[in-house]
Amino acid sequence: xxxxxxxxxxxxxxxxxxxxxxxxxxxxxxxxxxxxxxxxxxxxxxxxxxxxxxxxxxxxxxxxxxxxxxxxxxxxxxxxxxxxxxxxxxxxxxxxxxxxxxxxxxxxxxxxxxxxxxxxxxxxxxxxxxxxxxxxxxxxxxxxxxxxxxxxxxxxxxxxxxxxxxxxxxxxxxxxxxxxxxxxxxxxxxxxxxxxxxxxxxxxxxxxxxxxxxxxxxxxxxxxxxxxxxxxxxxxxxxxxxxxxxxxxxxxxxxxxxxxxxxxxxxxxxxxxxxxxxxxxxxxxxxxxxxxxxxxxxxxxxxxxxxxxxxxxxxxxxxxxxxxxxxxxxxxxxxxxxxxxxxxxxxxxxxxxxxxxxxxxxxxxxxxxxxxxxxxxxxxxxxxxxxxxxxxxxxxxxxxxxxxxxxxxxxxxxxxxxxxxxxxxxxxxxxxxxxxxxxxxxxxxxxxxxxxxxxxxxxxxxxxxxxxxxxxxxxxxxxxxxxxxxxxxxxxxxxxxxxxxxxxxxxxxxxxxxxxxxxxxxxxxxxxxxxxxxxxxxxxxxxxxxxxxxxxxxxxxxxxxxxxxxxxxxxxxxxxxx
Length: 578
What we know:
By secondary structure, the protein is of the alpha+beta class. The chain has 2 domains: about 90-165, Penicillin-binding protein 2a (Domain 2), CATH 3.90.1310; about 215-575, Beta-lactamase.
């Protein structure tokens, strides 16, 4: 082989080998590039997924107070006309992930400038913790949200939140109740229907009428101020269905703000137990009539005081003579009340108190309720005291419920705060007809006597024209911390008015109470029920009766006579009950 050919052959072989090596290197480089790209993509997507998981999906929750269940939308509470009483607002809250924060001290300094009410040391401790979630500020305003967002601090975030709002403030606070910062119902309807408000898809409708509630609240506030009372309370109820139309207790609180004073959260209507005084004489007379222990023609000597142990029971501005059954109630004689009770005895009295619901726990859809305080031994002595409203302490709701049965032909409705629809109305009314506490005859007589008390007696300042108001007033002395009722100079009173309208066919009943009202100009030194709580009740009736659709009948029936019962002049007891 010629040298030229050999050299050429070697060159071709060397070139082929170099080309093969070059192709192999390119292939290897290409594979490595693809592998690096794939690894980079996987890393990118992994980091992105983690960021989404931390910042969007995995919002820290349950263990710090805002679990998924708690963040569910809470339904509105509305009154009987659909007016919103409690609703849910969408807000935003500020939280931190301390594990992400780079400079906790710097973050704390900046946050304290936005939220000056926060303590820097406490905040710094949170931001330096090992937790993955800590609250900074709940329900921040939009302006504060913008300020936090503008800081741009890694690890400080905004989270959508919900806040309970009460458009009417304190107007129905003791009924509606309130929620804690995490949306849990902690009192009132909010607590009783907590699960329902979270799970149902419709608003919770109450029996309240916010218009009536406002009128009652307004009049009570005015009376507390006028008579320098410690507090006041009132309930308005539909006597047919038991629906509570209004329930007010003073002092109260704004449900939208933290409660400054625990006393403001005390519902006097359902938690307070009080000796009711003379309003209990309605029950006393009803028992006497129902058992036949007394009739309208019966008379009771009210000339001399009655002694119960070391106590002497007297009357206040009551004629010192023999009184008929009607006069005993209208004049509100303690002496006559005791002698009426002696006609039927302690066991009969206790039996009827149970029939009236006095001995049973109150029935209502809120948790704030108290049982009655009863005599340890229901003997002759206890019976005499109970006859005129002492030695037994009950809630105003107990008293109103008992009186409702007596004046509603014996059918005692179960009080409710839930709206009763037209479809359910008759069924509910029928459920009360099974076991009447008194006969319709007794009920009619009691209504007539109570109407006379308003037209001619101690409750005349509540005699609103056209509405045939019927009532009984009462003034009870309050026992002191050391027992007893104090001296005449420093005695504290609780005055009450219980009644309804109209007398010929009762539709609504109410109880109004003032805690320790004082004599003022125009009451001539008196602080009894006829001078303070009675005109208050009259003003309430005048305002709410038209709202409730009760038509005034200006053609009043003659109220000074009832089934042949004629009263003597009542002027001597004009100053009020005791």
